[in-house]
Amino acid sequence: MGDVYKALADPTRRAILDELQDRSGQTLFELCVRLTGKGFTSTRQAISQHLAVLADAGLVVLRRQGRYTFIDLDTSPLQQIYQRWRVGPCESDT
C-alpha cells in the first residue's frame, strides 16, 4: 500500500489519474496533450516516468495493442485503502 501513497503524493501523478478518470484508454501522446492543455509542462519522458510509478502502484495498466500502448485507470488499490478505513481494523476482527 505504500506505493499507492507514494504515487498519490505527486500533483502531476494525481493530474494523470484525473485525466484517466475522465477518459481511460489514452495513449501517451493523448495524455500529454491533455495535460499540456491544463497547464502542465512535463515532457513525454517525465510523463512516462510518472506512469511507471503509477503502474508499480497498480493504479494504471499499460496495454499494448499493435503499435500503440494504451493507459487504463485501475482503482482497485484505492478501493483497498477505502475498505481499510471504512471497516477499520477493530471492526474487521469481529
UniProtKB/TrEMBL annotation:
CDD domains: HTH_ARSR. PROSITE patterns: HTH_ARSR_2. PANTHER family: TRANSCRIPTIONAL REGULATOR, ARSR FAMILY, TRANSCRIPTIONAL REPRESSOR SDPR. It comes from Micromonospora gifhornensis. InterPro entries: ArsR-like_HTH, HTH_ArsR_DNA-bd_dom, HTH_MetalResp_TranReg, WH-like_DNA-bd_sf, WH_DNA-bd_sf. It comes from the Bacteria. It holds the Pfam family HTH_20. Residues 1-93 form the HTH arsR-type domain. Keywords: DNA-binding, Transcription, Transcription regulation. This is Transcriptional regulator.
